[in-house]
Design a protein that fits this description.
This is Polyhydroxyalkanoic acid system family protein. Pfam families: PHA_gran_rgn. By secondary structure, this protein is of the alpha+beta class. The protein has one domain: TATA-Binding Protein (2-Layer Sandwich), CATH 3.30.310. 27% of the residues lie in helices and 37% in strands. The protein has a five-stranded antiparallel sheet with strand order 1-5-4-3-2. The radius of gyration is 13 Å and the shape is globular. The relative contact order is 0.25.
Length: 100
């Protein structure tokens, strides 16, 4: 699943905000029992691993000049919740980019 969120912040500011707020990702996952791991593979690419409800979700967040792109790999058992996950990423990804 690919979700692009537009921004006009510049790459440096987007990276700063994502790094500052990446710990908040677990708060956006229903149930409150999610474990989230992040790792910056490069200056503009953060790996994401989420373990929730016995399922592992992986993906990347890539920072571009005018958008942030979430690439999420859903396991087949969670394909039915794709619209819900996409909506959550759109709403909460935008929150993560908002000014503190």
């Amino acid at each position: 699943m690919r979700i692009a969120l537009p921004h006009d912040l510049g790459r440096d500011e987007v990276r700063r905000r994502l790094k500052e707020r990446s710990h908040e990702i677990a708060d956006y996952i229903p149930g409150g029992l999610a474990k989230v791991d992040t790792n910056w593979r490069s200056e503009d690419r953060m790996e994401l691993g989420v373990n929730a409800m016995g399922q592992q979700i992986t993906g990347d967040i890539e920072v571009y000049d005018s958008e942030v792109v979430f690439q999420i790999k859903l396991p087949p058992a969670l394909s039915f919740v794709r619209p819900m996950i996409e909506g959550a990423i759109r709403a909460n990804g935008t929150k993560m980019l908002e000014k503190n």
